[in-house]
Backbone:
């Protein structure tokens, strides 16, 4: 009898375990409303329940999703053919009305901290028939499919008048995705259940439980203890040990995020640049030789191997190779401290100067430690560098608008940039283009780098629909900006997932952790 | 009654002052906007968002707006979650209370017997070890012990889950509760042990205990009835006051064990500069402490009639 | 501490400080703790002379040494007996300097809080009336909130930095001293010698400083030692929670917090040794304070 019970119990537990997937997330989403917060953890989790017209695969290449195909039909109109026979979780069919409704709602969510307005802006959506939508813009707009891959389609029936709490409670959280929403307990867990009526490949997991475990050691401990099956953002420090563990498997890929240094290009008297005796000097960072020297003084290999423990790839431009619009000429700057000293001497500061590097300490993996390593390396070529790190809320405010005239406060900062669209126009537009409030260019250009030649190339690219031509324009803009040391690229992050043996994960460049990417390896 | 009303008025003043300080303080420290927005938003959209949150207005205006709403029971919406801050906190309160009461029970269950033993046999080796242990308990940093517990019991031995919370009062829930509750209880355990020891030593010297012993009552009866009764008053009072401390210190334990309580919410909110939640947390905890202190006072006066007399005279 | 005790007014025979010392050292554990504390203070004071490396000088620290195991030779040419941390700092040096900061922050905030608290407490006790009532209400209020919570909120408001942590610690601690001083001073005030002083029409300042203050020193010493231990532990906790000191000049608490992430990967030394040092510091202060309490004021509870 006991034996029988045990057998039943065994079958029951293993049966459940085989169907259930438990995932430990470093950052948990802030809402179940797909249009509330344009944030990776939200978009990642919600793509289980909701889908967009255009999908992105694990390398962020665009794939058909709720739209089967798309093409520009004239200079300013794109046509999207919608997939037929797709049903929402409640059984209502998906039509063009839902698309129109979603793009009406996305920019107008009450209290949304970062809305999806940027993707809906300047576009007019016209329903042609139930399964055809035309999107019109004032000027030619090559990034249309990219933009549309960022906005989830919700059900019009349930979305009308629904506010964010209605999604959090699950009342309105009805999508077309491979999983149905079951439960959301902020700070604890999110549960989704397989959608057996899904139009695409049937998901293999019956039920998926996501748990937010922010603390790195705790997340690793949860995996080691078997409390979760898979974790994301594996801390670099634990890689060595996790790789050796026979009970675990690792999956990793380069990310779309670059870590770079921005330098003060616009002030003659820069607040955190001083002569060695502490007196003000004419800002040497405006001299391209000094910027080159700083770049040469940085030993990227050491940062990658020692600080990032191999969880990074040294960078020579804005996006890793393989992404759309990158240059194949640019290589990472080689470490050359003597060359750096020589360049400093040529630039008239043979004995160096004093500099402060500012960095957030809770934004990117090892951010403060990277800043410290950069500080060490610059100090060795004579640029006495002080390292100041702070929490991201303070850092980003001051870095963007902290000076008396509401401009950038710092002289030399460490920041990162992830390209949500997976192509080079994103960093070029935001980091390199001349700061222009009205046009929305250079929004994160916190060094105020400005080069008319680069600006022109970027603007041309943004108006070129033809892919090959656009890619070339973007690559040329990147080459000029990097040769001019508009920013100093350090490395691209590597995204890492760890899971129990027997599972596999298709690693993604966009840092998303998707249950649909978790397979059973044999 | 007058006493209670006076206490409540005082507390309201505290809430008012602290909310003002926190309001202005968090405003000065940093800007939540830059954490929340996505990188590729234009300045125009950022400005629109700032207006939507009301962050473009002067602080004092924001504060009066907050007060006006607070009177109606609306403590504002979280910048991050877009939901009422009060709701977020109340959602997580059960988890923190579960943890705090778990630790509370552990502290009593271990602390009182250990302390009584050390009080009854002050010179034995075991008592010395207990007392040394209690000093250790005072000295060990909570966060450090937390990770050690995870290392040993979750990772190395695999007996207990490392993080998170199970369902309330289920086997799984208790297993999840064990490590964090013990971690949180450690400090209070040391405290209870010392209080119980001091109380026991004092009681053992008192006439009625000596008398009870002389009367030939069994030692266990003497201990259980007379000594225990004597030490309960200080232990209950101090622990009652310390319950607030437990709730506050759960911030640390919750962070280590990813326990989904109010404390973790507070830390996250401080880091994200989610001002409405920080202010609401403060208001809630202050109110909670007032209630706890009142209950302790009432309990105390029930256990020790002299207190009531004193209060009446004052 | 004994320096303070020696300024007590001395009757002939055995001086109070001598008696204190005799009783204190009759306990072996307390003696050992005291010796340990002296060593710790010595190490902290002379850290720059003892440490093989200045861990805050970025041109002497290199990430090439990051996470070297204990006993390996670093690029500075000396053996890192306790290993190196994630930024390549020699652990032993970093601990000595960290100890300096931890002790410095703890003691300095303790001393200032003591001065402020004592002044306020004496004022309350001497003046009495509405001022006393007001001050004591304030003290009660502050003490009804856990120190960690108040400190956390304060640091959240003030921002990161050693000075800010100190302000928070002072604001958290002053009330303990004020209450202790007021309590003892009130008892003394009723005694005949103060009444006599009043009758002699001595100036109030003289009464307060020459007569009241010396008599509240004993409980102050006890509260002071225990509070200092508490402050050190509080600073470590704040740093662990990510709201304390800046990263580049880590205190012991921050060293532990930084080493935290390395624990699971087996690099125990980054977090373990500073943890041990912190524990030894707090424990030795607590043991000394505990013994002092037994001698000076057996009934005083935390």
Residues:
């Amino acid at each position: 009898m006991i034996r029988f019970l045990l057998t039943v119990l065994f079958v029951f537990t293993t049966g459940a375990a085989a169907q259930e997937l438990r995932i430990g997330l470093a950052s948990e989403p802030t809402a179940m409303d797909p249009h509330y917060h344009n944030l990776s953890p939200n978009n990642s989790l919600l793509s289980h329940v909701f889908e967009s017209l255009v999908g992105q695969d694990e390398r962020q290449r665009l794939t058909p999703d709720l739209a089967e195909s798309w093409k520009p039909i004239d200079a300013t109109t794109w046509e999207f053919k919608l997939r037929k026979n797709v049903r929402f979780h409640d059984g209502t069919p998906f039509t063009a009305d839902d698309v129109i409704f979603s793009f009406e709602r996305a920019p107008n969510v009450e209290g949304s901290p970062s809305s999806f307005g940027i993707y809906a802006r300047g576009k007019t959506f016209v329903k042609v028939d139930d399964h055809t939508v035309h999107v019109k813009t004032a000027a030619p707009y090559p990034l249309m499919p990219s933009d549309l891959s960022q906005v989830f389609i919700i059900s019009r029936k349930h979305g009308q008048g629904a506010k964010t709490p209605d999604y959090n409670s699950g009342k309105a959280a009805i999508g077309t995705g491979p999983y149905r929403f079951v439960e959301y307990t902020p700070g604890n867990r999110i549960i989704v259940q397989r959608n057996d009526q899904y139009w695409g490949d049937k998901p293999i997991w019956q039920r998926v439980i996501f748990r937010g475990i922010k603390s790195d050691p705790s997340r690793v401990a949860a995996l080691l203890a078997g409390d979760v099956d898979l974790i994301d953002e594996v801390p670099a420090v634990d890689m060595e040990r996790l790789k050796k563990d026979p009970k675990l498997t690792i999956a990793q890929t380069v990310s779309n995020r670059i870590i770079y240094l921005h330098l003060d290009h616009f002030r003659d008297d820069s607040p955190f640049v001083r002569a060695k005796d502490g007196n003000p000097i004419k800002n040497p960072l405006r001299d391209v030789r000094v910027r080159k020297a700083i770049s040469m003084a940085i030993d990227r290999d050491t940062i990658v191997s020692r600080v990032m423990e191999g969880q990074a790839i040294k960078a020579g431009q804005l996006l890793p190779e393989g992404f759309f619009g990158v240059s194949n000429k640019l290589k990472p700057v080689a470490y050359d401290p003597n060359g750096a000293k020589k360049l400093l001497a040529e630039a008239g500061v043979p004995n160096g100067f004093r500099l402060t590097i500012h960095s957030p300490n809770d934004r990117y993996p090892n951010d403060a430690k990277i800043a410290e390593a950069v500080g060490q390396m610059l100090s060795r070529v004579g640029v006495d560098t002080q390292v100041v790190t702070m929490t991201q809320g303070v850092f980003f405010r001051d870095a963007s608008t902290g000076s008396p005239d509401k401009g950038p406060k710092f002289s030399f900062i460490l920041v990162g940039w992830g390209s949500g669209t997976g192509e080079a126009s994103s960093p070029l537009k935001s980091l390199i283009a001349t700061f222009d409030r009205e046009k929305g260019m250079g929004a994160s250009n916190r060094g105020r780098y400005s080069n008319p030649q680069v600006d022109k190339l970027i603007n041309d690219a943004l108006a070129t629909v033809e892919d090959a031509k656009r890619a070339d324009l973007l690559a040329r803009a990147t080459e000029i900006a990097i040769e001019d040391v508009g920013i100093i690229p350090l490395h691209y992050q590597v995204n890492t997932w760890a899971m129990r043996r027997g599972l596999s994960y298709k690693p993604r460049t966009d840092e998303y952790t998707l249950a649909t990417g978790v397979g059973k390896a044999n | 009654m007058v006493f209670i009303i006076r206490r409540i008025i005082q507390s309201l003043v505290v809430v008012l002052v602290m909310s003002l300080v926190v309001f202005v303080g968090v405003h000065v420290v940093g800007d939540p906007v830059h954490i929340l927005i996505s990188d590729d938003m234009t300045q125009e959209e950022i400005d629109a968002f700032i207006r939507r949150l009301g962050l473009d207005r002067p602080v004092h205006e924001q504060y009066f707006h907050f007060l006006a709403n607070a009177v109606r029971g609306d403590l504002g919406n979280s910048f991050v979650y877009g939901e009422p801050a009060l709701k977020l906190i109340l959602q997580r309160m059960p988890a923190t209370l579960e943890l705090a009461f778990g630790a509370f029970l552990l502290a009593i269950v271990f602390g009182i017997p250990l302390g009584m033993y050390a009080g009854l046999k002050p010179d034995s080796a075991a008592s010395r070890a207990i007392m040394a242990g209690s000093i250790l308990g005072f000295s060990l940093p909570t966060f450090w012990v937390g990770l050690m517990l995870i290392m040993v019991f979750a990772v190395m031995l695999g007996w207990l889950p490392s993080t998170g919370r199970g369902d309330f009062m289920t086997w799984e829930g208790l297993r999840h509760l064990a490590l964090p509750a013990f971690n949180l209880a450690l400090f209070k355990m040391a405290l209870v042990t010392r209080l119980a020891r001091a109380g026991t030593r004092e009681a053992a010297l008192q006439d009625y205990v000596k008398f009870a012993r002389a009367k030939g009552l069994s030692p266990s009866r003497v201990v259980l009835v007379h000594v225990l009764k004597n030490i309960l008053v200080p232990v209950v009072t101090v622990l009652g006051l310390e319950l607030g401390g437990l709730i506050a210190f759960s911030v640390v334990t919750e962070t280590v064990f990813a326990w989904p309580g109010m404390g973790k919410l507070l830390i996250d909110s401080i880091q994200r500069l989610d001002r409405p939640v920080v202010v609401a947390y403060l208001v809630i905890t202050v109110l909670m402490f007032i209630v706890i202190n009142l209950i302790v006072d009432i309990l105390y006066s029930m256990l020790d009639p002299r207190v009531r007399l004193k209060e009446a005279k004052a | 501490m004994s320096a303070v005790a020696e300024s007590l007014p001395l009757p002939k025979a055995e001086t109070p400080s001598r008696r204190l010392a005799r009783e204190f050292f009759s306990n072996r554990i307390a003696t050992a703790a005291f010796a340990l504390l002296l060593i710790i203070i010595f190490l902290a004071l002379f850290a720059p002379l003892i440490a093989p490396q200045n861990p805050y000088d970025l041109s002497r620290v290199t990430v090439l040494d990051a996470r070297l195991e204990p006993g390996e030779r670093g690029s500075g040419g000396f053996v890192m007996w306790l290993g190196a941390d994630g930024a390549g700092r020699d652990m032993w040096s970093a601990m000595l300097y960290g100890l300096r900061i931890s002790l410095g922050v703890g003691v300095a905030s303790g001393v200032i809080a003591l001065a402020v608290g004592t002044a306020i407490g004496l004022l309350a006790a001497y003046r009495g009336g509405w001022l006393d009532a007001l001050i004591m209400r304030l003290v009660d209020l502050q003490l009804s909130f856990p120190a960690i919570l108040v400190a956390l909120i304060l640091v959240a408001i003030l921002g990161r930095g050693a000075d800010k942590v100190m302000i928070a610690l002072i604001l958290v601690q002053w009330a303990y001293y004020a209450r202790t001083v007021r309590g003892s001073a009130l008892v003394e005030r009723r005694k005949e010698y103060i009444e006599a002083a009043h009758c002699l029409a001595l100036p109030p300042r003289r009464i307060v400083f020459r007569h009241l203050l010396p008599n509240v020193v004993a409980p102050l010493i006890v509260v002071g030692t225990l509070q200092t231990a508490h402050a050190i532990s509080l600073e470590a906790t704040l740093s662990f929670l990510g709201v304390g000191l800046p990263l580049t000049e880590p205190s012991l608490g921050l060293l532990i917090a930084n080493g935290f992430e390395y624990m699971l990967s087996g690099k125990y030394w980054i977090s373990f040794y500073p943890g041990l040092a912190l524990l030894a510091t707090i424990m030795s202060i607590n043991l000394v304070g505990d013994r002092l309490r037994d001698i000076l004021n057996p009934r005083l509870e935390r």
